[in-house]
Amino acid sequence: MSTHRDAKGRPIVAVTGLGVVTSLGQGKDANWEALTAGRSGIHRIERFPIDGLRTTIAGTVDFLFDEPFTAPELSEKLATLAAEEAVTQSGLGEAGAFPGELFMAVPPVEIEWPQRQELAGEIEGDADYDGLLRAAATHKYKAMHELFLFGGVADHIADRFGTKGSPISLSTACSSGATAIQMGVEAIRRGETQAALCIGTDGSVHAEALIRFSLLSALSTQNEPAEAAAKPFSKNRDGFVMGEGAGALVLEDYDHALARGATILGIVAGCGERGDGFHRTRSSPDGKPAILAMQDALADAGLTPADIDYINAHGTSTPENDKMEAMSCTAVFGERMAELPISSNKSMIGHTLTAAGAVEAVFSFLTIAKGRIPPTINYTQPDAAIPLDVVPNVARDAKVRTVISNSFGFGGQNTCLVLAAAPEAA
């Protein structure tokens, strides 16, 4: 019987392991050093030809691998590295037997152009999409077919770490990583598992993805200098920069963690999720779903806006999203927004899409542990319509006990997490 309960009588959800990989480096130490130094991992793309592309930059993770991979392959490799770090820190999962469930945010997958071209050569007559899928399902292309099956990455991670039950794959756009954490929290609160491995991963920077986002006018075209392109909340922002990475968290029932002598890094105190379906890509202009998601997360945590010390912004650097997030935060936090620090690490790592919510949760817990807030870099032209304390350009020392981390996705999918120091540390 759990003895540590929250205000609603539910098991407290502890965090005992964190892992991360981004364009800034592999592991918590490398990422934290670069983040707080205000360094950018965004650079000119060298992985594939960029001739004719409007956007030629990204926060790719090229320093770890010598060969090119498809998006599912790279997503799996990044997830593996982040999970290894988190599981090792937690002390769970020895000999590949993690004593809990897997909740994994992965990018939506489909056969990419090079594979389609290969398959098209095997089809007689018109090479329509259905024909490509049928060809991919043949014995000759069984490996390719399995590679692009949604859920395949999670299956491989589950096998590697020996998680229990059926691995859960999910994709809720840019809120996916946060949703994976929320599902782990809910499973522990319900008593379905005493531990959960929650991962968000995305390795989908390729030409097709760049073109698709460009057609939506979502990407920055300020390619020179690459490191200055992502500028959340600045007046001259013009779009987001794609990034790659993975974040992993080991969650546990607080009493389960205490009983085995684990070091508790913090708690996931609350989760809030709202959807609106206003538009396939645009945010609801009144900010209502984002406002409700933040309010729901606070209510779930049993906290008020006055209890939050820092906002880890979604902060994509698109004209519309940044304005909507600023307006929504002001609606929730009121006059406090004039002094409440809010910063966006996407200014340095780009938008890691499916991974973003998990990556930023890891950074939030590091902020709590280190007492230092990462900056929003490239903030040289303040936007009078967004009068926020964005921790401009230089990291700031501060006592941070409670963070709200925002993740707002295409299609009106909004997830917010309230992350806090462990009770003893509070």
Automatic annotation (TrEMBL):
The keyword Oxidoreductase does not apply. GO terms for molecular function: 3-oxoacyl-[acyl-carrier-protein] synthase activity. Pathway: Lipid metabolism; fatty acid biosynthesis. Residues 10-421 form the Ketosynthase family 3 (KS3) domain. Pfam families: ketoacyl-synt, Ketoacyl-synt_C. The keyword Transferase applies. Coiled coil: none annotated. InterPro entries: Beta-ketoacyl_synthase, Ketoacyl_synth_AS, Ketoacyl_synth_C, Ketoacyl_synth_N, PKS_Beta-ketoAc_synthase_dom, Thiolase-like. Keywords: Transferase. GO terms for biological process: fatty acid biosynthetic process. GO terms for cellular component: cytosol. SUPFAM superfamilies: Thiolase-like (SSF53901). Belongs to the thiolase-like superfamily. Beta-ketoacyl-ACP synthases family. This is Beta-ketoacyl-ACP synthase.
